[in-house]
Automatic annotation (TrEMBL):
This is Putative regulatory protein. Signal peptide: none annotated. Residues 8-127 form the Purine catabolism PurC-like domain. Residues 462-520 form the PucR C-terminal helix-turn-helix domain. Pfam families: HTH_30, PucR. The lineage of its organism: Bacteria, Bacillati, Bacillota, Bacilli, Bacillales.
Length: 537
């Protein structure tokens, strides 16, 4: 629905004998309000799109003041100027007419006395009634659009409905296609697309655009163009409603896709358990996505635990999985997801070169951390573990196993050594391997039992002192400072450590072994504690 223009106002009763003496090419401009003005300093009093009524009292016959007044109106984006010819203003100088023509700024003359009060009352009533119609039309459009959403199978149907309603040129940019409504000849089409993509907005008389956002990600760009009228607030509201409807349509498709993927749960569990060979995997993937080719893959294990002791709803987890999948697919991964007890397991099928997989995962996590989650997701404490990358899809079970270990290690890592990736957890991987193939606890006690027993008996804090002393490279002063103890206490503890471990405990090889055993001691304690807290995956 078009706004009230000067052309329409000229048809009103009090404008029957009015004369347009300048700016006829601007008669299509929108009018939002009418002001009666008799002062010269007007610029700060206007908001734009006003039609000004005046007798010229402010400038009388002073051409310089008249020009200054007109310039202020143009700069303030006023719509037009109506002047009652009287003793104050008897004629319009040619350079004033030229200035108005240059800026397509209409100047309208009343050659007879007119009632400004009645004019403002009439036009304001027209504007208010028009506003009510706009609100009604907007509501009708929204209702019909919502009905359409329940029926349409393709986003183009929404665009056709949108274009038909506004009757403007519509251009919709999607990742893999560009839609023009109405369609243009090939040469015009590519010329128009090129100008929009290169941000050549000056090439178009009137243009507006809005992004279609789904789960904080850009899905499309919707552009409207028109040559014969201004794009008004109503057009922008319709544009906003339409982009929202498109977002809902895409979100619905994503939810349907996610539901379909959930039905693959049983097959996925067998895949994670290593029960499918490469031939079976390729056959199943081609059924899911014809032409899908994966160049290896990696598993991401995710633990979902609410910090407010409430259970996350299915909707929250679905939103989280959609968000995760959207971000990681943009980094070149085909994402499979499955819920296993309190965990969400993602299989990231690689679709790009192998050498960049880790860099792309890191980039995805950076984006994921910046996303503005909904309130329920913000309340969730989410941990991630990325397993080792495997080149063969039938080896995904080994990536899954290492992802679970990495998730377990997250609670043990220092801030400096924190990483989502199994391949970054060098010492912990060695300890895990030793623990599986030998009695790691026995080895640890062989080195540290005297110190551990002393602490248990006397609460001597020797393990803490030993760890800090080694981290400070044998500096007693720095160790005392970090432990907040006096130097004399520090000397006494070092002497006790020498008694329990031997005076050579700081020699290079023995020191290296003790440092490793301290890390293993912490690993064993943490593993025991968190294995009880984490259900089996």
């Amino acid at each position: 629905m078009q706004s009230i223009t000067i052309t329409e106002i000229l048809k009103r009763k009090h404008f029957e004998k009015a004369e347009v003496v300048a700016g006829t090419s601007g008669l299509h401009k929108n009018v939002k309000w009418v002001h009666v003005v008799e002062v010269i300093a007007i610029k700060k009093l206007l908001n734009g799109h006003e039609l000004i009524l005046t007798t010229g009292l402010g400038w009388k016959e002073n051409k310089a003041l008249f020009k200054s007044f007109l310039t202020q109106l143009i700069e303030s984006n006023a719509t037009g100027l109506c002047i009652e010819v009287s003793s104050h203003t008897s004629f319009i100088p040619q350079d004033i007419i030229d200035l108005a023509n240059e800026h397509q700024f209409p100047i309208i003359l009343f050659h007879e006395e007119v009632p400004f009060v009645q004019i403002t009352q009439d036009i304001h009533s027209l504007l208010i009634n028009h506003q009510y119609r706009l609100i009604s039309d907007l509501e009708n459009y929204s209702q019909n659009l919502n009905k359409k959403l329940l029926e349409v199978n393709n986003h183009k149907e929404i665009l056709v409905f949108f274009q038909t309603f506004l009757n403007v040129q519509v251009v919709a940019f999607f990742d893999e296609e560009t839609i023009l409504l109405p369609e243009l000849p090939t040469k015009e089409r590519w010329n128009l697309i090129e100008k929009i993509k290169n941000n050549q907005q000056s090439s178009f008389k009137y243009m507006a655009s809005q992004s279609v956002q789904v789960l904080e990600n850009h899905f499309a760009e919707l552009v409207i163009l028109t040559e014969d009228r201004e794009i008004n607030e109503f057009d922008l509201l319709i544009l906003d409603r339409t982009t929202t409807a498109l977002a809902q349509h895409f979100l619905r498709d994503l939810y349907v896709e996610e539901k379909r993927r959930l039905e693959e749960t049983e097959w996925m569990i067998d895949w994670l358990d290593g029960l499918h060979n490469n031939v079976e995997i390729k056959e199943h993937l081609s059924y899911l996505e014809p032409g899908l080719k994966l160049n290896g893959g990696v598993v991401c294990a995710c633990k979902w635990q609410s910090t407010d002791h409430s259970t996350a709803t299915t909707l929250d987890k679905t939103y989280f999985k959609l968000l995760f999948r959207t971000i990681f697919e943009q980094q070149g991964f085909y994402v499979f997801s499955i819920e296993v007890k309190h965990h969400i397991i993602f299989i990231l099928g690689n679709q790009r070169p192998l050498k960049s997989w880790k860099q792309r995962v890191e980039e995805a996590f950076k984006r994921f951390e910046k996303v503005d989650y909904n309130q329920k997701l913000k309340a969730a404490n989410i941990s991630f573990g990325i397993g080792k990358f495997v080149k063969q899809l039938n080896e995904i079970h080994s990536s899954y196993k290492s992802a679970k270990e990495t998730l377990l290690f997250q609670k043990m890592l220092t801030k400096d050594g924190q990483s989502y990736f199994y391949e970054d957890l060098h010492m912990y991987r060695i300890m895990s391997l030793l623990n599986k193939h030998s009695d790691l606890q026995e080895i640890v006690l062989e080195y540290l039992q005297p110190v551990i027993d002393y602490d248990n008996k006397f609460n001597g804090k020797l393990v803490e002192t030993l760890k800090t002393y080694l981290a400070c490279n044998g500096s007693k002063q720095e160790t005392a400072k970090k432990l907040f103890v006096v130097r004399q206490t520090m000397y006494h503890r070092i002497e006790k450590l020498e008694t329990l471990l031997g005076k050579d405990f700081m020699s290079s090889e023995k020191r290296l072994a003790i440092e490793f055993m301290l890390l293993a001691y912490e690993y064993l304690n943490t593993t025991e504690r968190y294995t009880k807290a984490l259900p089996d995956l």
